[in-house]
Design a protein that fits this description.
11 helices, 69% helix, mainly alpha
């Protein structure tokens, strides 16, 4: 099965000390995609054509700007902007007309439609979004075929809310009745137990700012905020 190609990164993520294995997989994909984008690949015609068309979302534009290869970013930006200017000049030739007094013009202009499509696209996001569903498929493949993976799954620190929902929704499409019931019971136990654990750490982090608790130990709360952001916002913050 094609899913077997992804077993190594999936197993590695479930062995890692993290609050959500799927967040770790996504985070690693993002780092690899940034490196790929600013590596030698940006000079390849196929990749330049894709970055010309898709460009980058605000988040990934900021990340790329923070990397060392600003010449690579500038080259991609120049060809992207050349394409954008040419396309918008062509679309702007057909000027919009007034909607009239009795109704609002809810029709999107070609210029507006092009810009909104551009705002919703990102070369790096697309690379990530193409891979994550394969990781999810691999999780269910391993659940059905590998008993050692089931133990890794049960031993992980749960999932963020977003990926909990992703696994919950996809499970009925991947598992039969018996396996589905066990998977959902396990998933629910992992999610709620670990959400409550992290939320308890966040609560103690808050209490430590109260003078009454300033001399109390931090327990597990010093890094509660970044771990809480993983659970709530499905992100991993680089230290």
């Amino acid at each position: 099965m094609a899913e077997q190609l992804f077993t190594i990164p999936v197993n590695d993520a479930f062995e890692a000390d993290c609050e959500c294995p799927l967040c770790k997989l996504t985070h690693d994909l993002e780092k690899n995609a940034v490196e790929y984008t600013l590596g030698p690949s940006y000079m390849e015609d196929d990749n330049r054509a894709m970055t010309d068309k898709l460009w980058f979302c605000q988040k990934h534009a900021r990340i790329l700007y923070g990397e060392k290869n600003r010449l690579g970013l500038a080259l991609m930006m120049k060809t992207h902007n050349d394409k954008t200017i040419a396309n918008l000049k062509n679309l702007a030739k057909n000027k919009p007309t007034p909607a009239g007094l009795l109704k609002k013009n809810k029709n999107q202009t070609p210029v507006g439609a092009y810009i909104r499509e551009l705002e919703d696209s990102c070369f790096i996001c697309q690379r990530i979004e193409q891979r994550v569903p394969r990781y999810v498929d691999t999780i269910f493949h391993l659940w059905k075929k590998d008993s050692s993976f089931i133990e890794k799954f049960k031993s992980c620190k749960g999932f963020c809310t977003y990926h909990y929902g992703m696994l919950y929704d996809e499970a009925p499409n991947k598992l039969g009745k018996g396996a589905l019931e066990e998977f959902i019971d396990t998933l629910n136990e992992l999610y709620f137990t670990n959400m409550e654990r992290v939320n308890g750490d966040v609560s103690w982090f808050i209490d430590k700012f109260d003078y009454r608790f300033k001399d109390e130990p931090w327990k597990n709360s010093k890094d509660a905020l970044p771990r809480g952001l993983t659970k709530a916002n499905h992100i991993i913050l680089d230290e």
